[in-house]
Automatic annotation (TrEMBL):
Protein known as: Beta-N-acetylhexosaminidase
Gene3D superfamilies: Glycosidases
Gene source species: Entomortierella chlamydospora
Origin: domain of life: Eukaryota
Record InterPro entries: GH (IPR017853), HEXDC-like (IPR038901)
Length: 247
């Protein structure tokens, strides 16, 4: 699970994965191994002397924090007076630290500490984003994983996948035909990945309207009220909706 990156003259965040709480390890590993700036390391590699800045991140539980609250502080027990570019940080959140890491290189040590010592609480129980997976090319599973990592770093704890017909339905080969929809296993994989990042994955489907991509096929003409809407108050439509809800 280690990353073997160094950035000459750049910036590096170091995380001791062995000391990360077990429930966070999978998510932290996913973020570290796929960081866009390639500046997070899960171990201190042999070329660390080439990296200009070094921040050691330590994650710990704080039972005093309320739900939705996070806290970050520079570890007061670590003496950094000899090298102000080497800082030990106690972390309850990661996204803001990555943001601060892009700003501090020209700042004095006092300003750096002020960026890294804070406590905040989210105003919302759920902070969600909806991704449209029904227009043009459907996002591949790997692209959904990437978006989930970004969402986790921004404190988003819910992702909704808007799928009109872009998912697999047993016995209906024309449902989502040529649309690049998700298989059941892909949806399971995405749900597991989201859970590791602290995100609730919510699949969003349509059951009456916005189904023009399905109703264009002759096999589904019997269900049409209009080109986009299912015919209501009809037993066959109810049976189709039941199959949709079982997916």
């Amino acid at each position: 699970m280690d990353t073997d990156m160094t950035i000459s003259g750049g910036f590096n965040l170091l995380i001791d994965l062995a000391n990360v709480p077990a429930e966070l390890q999978q998510g932290i590993s996913a973020i570290a191994n796929n960081c866009p700036q390639n500046n997070i390391s899960l171990r201190e590699n042999d070329e660390m002397h080439e990296v200009e800045f070094h921040w050691l991140l330590r994650f710990e539980k704080d039972l005093g924090l309320q739900q939705g609250e996070c806290s970050v502080m520079v570890d007061p027990l670590i003496d950094t007076s000899a090298d102000q570019k080497r800082i030990a940080i106690v972390v309850k959140s990661l996204g803001r630290i990555l943001g601060a890491s892009r700003q501090i290189q020209s700042l004095d040590p006092e300003k750096t500490h002020s960026l890294l010592c804070y406590t905040e609480k989210c105003c919302y129980e759920n902070l969600a984003v909806m991704i449209d997976c029904s227009r043009g090319g459907v996002l591949k599973q790997s692209s959904v994983f990437t978006l989930m990592r970004y969402c986790a770093l921004m404190g988003i704890n819910m992702m909704q996948l808007y799928t009109e017909d872009t998912y697999e339905m047993e016995g209906e080969t024309f449902f989502g035909y040529l649309r690049g929809g998700y298989t059941r296993q892909e949806l399971v994989n995405m749900d597991d990945y989201a859970d590791a990042l602290g995100i609730e994955l919510v699949p969003c489907i349509q059951t009456l309207g916005h189904l023009g991509q399905v109703l264009q096929w002759p096999k589904f003409h019997v269900y049409r009220d209009t080109n986009e809407v299912l015919l209501s108050n009809w037993d066959e439509t109810c049976n189709l909706i039941e199959k949709v809800n079982e997916c």
